[in-house]
């Protein structure tokens, strides 16, 4: 397994770890709230004679604020402050007063949890709780500014300050950890992209090593045949020259593709691409391989010259692939190529007769290989259609209808106008 696959396998670990951390936090806070609730409800009633209904209500407010702070920090902080001040008002002096121990614990927990996400909220809650408790100790219904009360307020203020600091550090640590996770993800993505580029480069080198040597040998042998074999006839010399020219053209096209494959930033070589004007030469080369081909080219030179280069290349490739299929699957079969411009589109048809008895039967559409699929993809780029089906006489026909750029633009404009009218 490569490092990329290991990273891909370990990618879900971080979200799973974060989810486990959130679940642990929720469980811990709920357990703490459930623990504080009965103590806050029972202590004032048993020790100070506060009505049970009031203590239950205030204890519920404090415990609920501890849990609610995880999703609503502002509301939870307000409820926690209300609980602290309400207990100070209803609890008579004696023991820890004006803030009970359970109120201190609940308030510090809320401040710390609120400060980890929104520290101003925790700061405001702590300040209001401390100042409110001080005001109750000075001017409340049972105000008593004693040394015990002052010590209680100092302890409460200190705990609130520590909780605020811990919450602030917790939030900073969580933000730094999240940033680190994002940086690691970006680094992993960049490393994966680089590995993909390196793999493309390696494949390009291997492809070049595999193909280039054989193509070069074919080109050299075909070019030197007239000199190595002086007894060759003129027809044989022309045949070898045609093979050499085809090998050179294939090598040029392969190098342009490999230049793109080697790197994402590298552009292909500026090799002239075939056009519709070169279809007759393509047909002539295919005839020399033993096929009987007739080209019915109804395009004028002006029409062919006006074609978009990509459209012109698409037509050439469809004819090239169709003739290759004929050579492979119906060698020697009569083939008719019809090429014309009609109704704002280029109509191309390549029809071959049934395969000879000595050759393989005619291919079925999309039966292995990617030739027909590749032709369909090329035609689809121009919003055209392609049909490749067997004929009733045992042959095969490829029909392509490719709209011209002007027709596509007009159709899109009409669609936009219709949509605007409908709107």
Describe the 3D structure:
The chain has helices spanning 3-10, 13-48, 52-68, 73-90, 101-115, 119-139, 147-223, 225-228, 234-262, 279-288, 301-306, 309-329, 371-381, 405-422, and strands at residues 292-297, 334-342, 345-352, 385-390, 396-403. The protein has 423 residues and is an alpha+beta fold. It folds into 3 domains: 3-189, no CATH class; 198-262; 276-422, Histidine kinase-like ATPase, C-terminal domain (Heat Shock Protein 90). It has a 5-stranded mixed β-sheet. A hairpin with a 5-residue loop joins strand 4 (385-390) and strand 5 (396-403). The two termini are 55 Å apart.
Distance between the termini: 55 Å
- Return residue spans where pLDDT drops below 50 for at least 5 consecutive residues: 1-11, 266-270, 358-369
Q: What order do the helices and strands follow?
A: HHHHHHHHHHEHHEEHEEH
Quickly count the domains: 3
Structural class comes to alpha+beta
Mean pLDDT: 80
- The tally of helices reads 14
Strand order of the largest sheet: 1-2-3-5-4
Cα-based radius of gyration, to the nearest Å: 42 Å
Number of separate strands: 5
In percent, how much strand structure appears in the residues? 5-15%
Give the tags:
423 residues, alpha+beta, 3 domains, 5-stranded mixed β-sheet, 5 strands, 69% helix, 9% strand, disordered N terminus
């Amino acid at each position: 397994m490569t490092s990329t696959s290991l990273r891909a396998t370990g990618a879900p670990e971080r979200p799973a770890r974060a989810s486990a951390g959130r679940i642990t936090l929720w469980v811990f806070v709920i357990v703490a709230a459930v623990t504080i609730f009965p103590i806050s409800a029972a202590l004032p009633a048993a020790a100070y004679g506060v009505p049970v209904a009031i203590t239950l209500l205030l204890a519920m407010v404090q415990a609920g604020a501890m849990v609610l702070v995880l999703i609503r920090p502002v509301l939870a902080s307000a409820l926690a402050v209300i609980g602290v001040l309400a207990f100070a008002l209803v609890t008579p002096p004696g023991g820890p007063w004006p803030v009970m121990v359970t109120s201190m614990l609940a308030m510090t927990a809320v401040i710390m949890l609120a400060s980890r996400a929104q520290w101003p909220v925790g700061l405001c809650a702590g300040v209001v709780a401390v100042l409110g408790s001080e005001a109750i100790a000075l001017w409340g219904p049972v105000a008593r500014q004693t040394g015990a009360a002052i010590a209680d307020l100092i302890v409460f203020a200190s705990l609130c300050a520590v909780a605020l600091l811990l919450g602030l550090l917790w939030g900073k640590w969580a933000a730094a950890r999240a940033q680190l996770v994002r940086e690691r993800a970006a680094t992993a993505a960049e490393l994966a992209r680089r590995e993909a580029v390196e793999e493309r480069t390696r494949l390009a080198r291997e492809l070049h090593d595999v193909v280039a040597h054989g193509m070069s040998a074919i080109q050299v042998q075909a070019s030197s045949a007239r000199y190595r074999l002086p007894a060759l006839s003129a027809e044989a010399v022309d045949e070898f020259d045609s093979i050499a020219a085809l090998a050179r053209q294939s090598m040029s096209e392969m190098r342009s593709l490999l230049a793109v494959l080697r790197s994402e930033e590298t552009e292909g070589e500026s090799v002239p691409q075939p056009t519709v004007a070169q279809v007759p030469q393509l047909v002539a080369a295919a005839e020399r391989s033993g096929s009987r081909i007739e080209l019915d080219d109804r395009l004028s030179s002006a029409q062919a010259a006006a074609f978009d280069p990509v459209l012109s290349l698409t037509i050439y490739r469809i004819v090239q692939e169709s003739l290759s299929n004929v050579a492979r699957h119906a060698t020697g079969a009569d083939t008719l190529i019809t090429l014309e411009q009609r109704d704002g589109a280029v109509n191309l048809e390549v029809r071959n007769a049934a395969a000879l008895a000595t050759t393989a039967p005619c291919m079925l559409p999309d039966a292995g290989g990617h030739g027909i699929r590749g032709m369909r993809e090329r035609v689809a780029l121009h919003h055209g259609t392609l049909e490749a089906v067997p004929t009733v006489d045992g042959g095969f026909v490829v029909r392509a209808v490719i709209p011209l750029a002007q027709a596509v633009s007009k159709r899109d404009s009409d669609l936009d106008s219709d949509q605007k009218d409908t709107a």
